[in-house]
Amino acid sequence: MFTDEYFMKIALQEAEAALDEDEVPVGCVIVANNRIIAKSHNLTETMNDVTAHAEMQAITSAANFLGGKYLQNCTMYVTLEPCIMCCGALNWSQISKVVIGARDKQRGFIKHHLSLHPKTELVTGVLENECSAMVSDFFRARR
Hints:
Blueprint: H1 4-20, E1 27-32, E2 35-41, H2 44-47, H3 54-66, E3 74-80, H4 84-93, E4 97-102, E5 121-124, H5 128-142
Parallel strand pairs: 3-4, 4-5
Antiparallel strand pairs: 1-2, 1-3
C-alpha cells in the first residue's frame, strides 16, 4: 500500500495546492516509517522569498517534527527535481532517500553534475508523466 507512487500522489496534491495559490506547482512530502511527517508546496510568491521552495519548507518542517537537523531514515517525495539550493539542503540534511517525479532539465541539480549525500538513495521517474504535465501546463498557460 505505501509505495513510492502512493506518496508521490500526495506530493501531487501539494503541487495542486501550489497551483491554486498561483505558485509554480511543485509539491513535496517527507515520510518516516511510512508516516508523513511533513508536507509542503512552493511558497515563493506567497512569502516573497526565493528560498521558499517546497523542499526547503518540508526539510524545515520535518526537522522540527523530529527535533533535529538530520533526516536519516526519511524519504522525500518531490514532484520536480530539486534545484541546486535544495540539493545542498538535502545533502546537509543527510536524508536517506529522495524520490523525484519529473526531471528539471533546465534548473535541476542532476544537470549540474551535483549529487546528494553519499548515503542518499535517488529514484527518478515516479509518476513522471503526471508530474511533468502539471509543470508544463502551468508554464504553457503563462506564455
